[in-house]
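Weekly modeling sync, notes
Attendees: S.R. (lead), two postdocs, one rotation student

Agenda item 3: backlog of single-chain predictions. S.R. asked that every request posted to the team notebook include the full sequence so nobody has to chase files. The rotation student volunteered to paste the first one in as an example of the format we agreed on. Action items at the bottom.

Example entry:
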Amino acid sequence: MRVYGMSLSGNCYKLKLLMELTGQAYQWEEVDILAGEAAVPEFLAKNANGKVPVLELDNGEFLPESNAGLFYLAAGSDFYPNDTLTQARVLQWMFFEQYSHEPAIAVARFISKFLPEDHPRRADLPALHDKGYQAFKVMEQHLSAEQWFAGEQASIADIALYAYSHVATDGGFDLTNYPHILRWFEDIQGLPGYVPMTER
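Predicted structure, as returned to the notebook:
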């Protein structure tokens, strides 16, 4: 399989991390979205939405969207549970990640890390921080009673939430007062096969 992604993207890192944790062979094709490489016709033929990551399957089909890729790659592995309720819990947290978490935490990181100091979007940061801290509050409460987000072991729900959470400081978030989230970071980083997010 091949992953078209940008190394600095948390959404792309999700797929890389899961493939490393599960020992799946893949090739990484770097796509610089900041340079417009996802807007060229060759890439749009893979994903008409012009976003990364895109997973190219062994049969030549293309699967966009990070959480769809996680679901596909986790099939038959320990990162996707067998029972229906725990599967629903996985989806619950993955929907939370896409609706309540990523739009604040990932966007704050993008603005802080990639846009100039005088960019007008920096005015959005206070509201993004408020929304992001609310998401972290929900996560912290859950992790105060549970080791993982769905079931008794790490799942793709954890990978989905970890990708942008562990680099949230890039977006101006301070997680000092979230000890259970910090413990969860360490638990994920201790998984066999774990690889950090790399920068190019």
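Discussion: group reviewed the output briefly. Residues 84-114 form the longest helix (31 residues).
Action items: rotation student to repeat for the remaining queue; S.R. to check formatting next week.
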